[in-house]
Amino acid sequence: MHWTGRAAPHDQFALNAAIHLENLPTRFMEPTYNWICDLATPKWDAELGRFVRPVAPHRPIHVMHLAGPAKAREFDVDVIGGGGRRGKLLFGATYSETAP
After folding, report:
1. Alpha-carbon span 43 to 78, nearest angstrom
2. Number of continuous H segments (helices) and E segments (strands) in the chain
3. How far, in Å, CA of 96 to CA of 10, rounded?
4. What residue spans of the chain are helical by DSSP H?
5. What is the per-residue pLDDT across 4-61, written as a single tens digit (0 to 9) for each?
6. Which is it for strands 75-78 and 43-45: parallel, antiparallel or unpaired?
7. Are 42 and 52 within 8 A, CB to CB?
8. Residue 60 DSSP symbol
9. pTM here?
10. CA end-to-end distance (rounded Å), the chain
């Protein structure tokens, strides 16, 4: 096997195969239940006190998916209404304010 530096989600492949081969019932959920931060940085809604989708309508994000390097990196997060914050997207993380 050649190592590419990328993780291969073999467990996900197996789950998908089992679902499709056995015609198991499934329910597709919207991206806010598995928000992949490397693909789109969320926005912060200070009024709600939570992260939301970066595009309107700014619905709350229920589960944020941080994998690999995203766990250690800092993100520039826009705040709805102006301004921003910089920091890690981990529970209990602290943030510094950024320019509007």
Report:
1. 5
2. 1, 7
3. 38
4. 10-21
5. 556 667 788 888 999 999 999 998 899 999 998 888 999 999 899 889 999 999 999 9
6. unpaired
7. yes
8. B
9. 0.73
10. 48
